[in-house]
Amino acid sequence: MRKTYIVEKGTLQDSHIYFELQNPKDQVKNWQASGRIIADSDELAFIYLMDEETEYSYVKFPQSVWPLLVETLQSKAIPMLKCGTEAIELVNFQDELQSLIYNIEGNYNYGEVFTSTVEETFAELLSEA
User: Fold this and answer.
1) Cα gap 61→5, rounded to integer Å
2) Were both Cys, which of 22, 44, 50, 59 would link to 63 (CB 3.0–4.6 Å)?
């Protein structure tokens, strides 16, 4: 069964941004960053896929933390997922997120609400393209 972990907050430290899970007691074992992000337009979220041996787990970035995603892209900070006392680099995060945002812009296949919300939140980045 696929597990979903929700990012609640993040902090910028030096050249890294550390995303923290809603339930920091979640034990994650044998995780490997997949380097892939997908959209969940129904839940207004971006999902980073983590390879967990035999299946993928979802790390969900709900709309409430999208300002952190903007900050990550603007600062070019290295995104890390904090898991207890360890941190895992979310490889290819910026490239995947930026490509996805550009794909969503003006694309109502994702749904009008999701597309509009992405365009509004990431407007500054989209205008730089």
Assistant:
1) 9
2) 44
Neighbours of 127 (CB within 10 A): 7
Contact 3, 52 (CB under 8 A): yes
pLDDT digits (tens, 9 = 90+) for 95-106: 999 999 999 999
C-alpha distances (whole Å) from 45 to each of 14, 30, 41, 114 are 26, 24, 6, 9
Long-range CB contacts for residues 44-50, cutoff 8 Å, separation at least 24: 44/113, 44/114, 44/117, 46/97, 46/100, 48/81, 48/90, 48/93, 50/81, 50/88
- Give dist(CA 102, CA 127) in Å, integer: 10
pLDDT computed for residue 83 by the predictor: 80
3-state secondary structure of 65: helix
3-state secondary structure of 62: strand
Please report which confidence band the pLDDT of residue 24 belongs to, taking 50, 70 and 90 as the band edges.
Answer: low
User: Domain boundaries in the chain?
Assistant: 4-128
pTM: 0.93
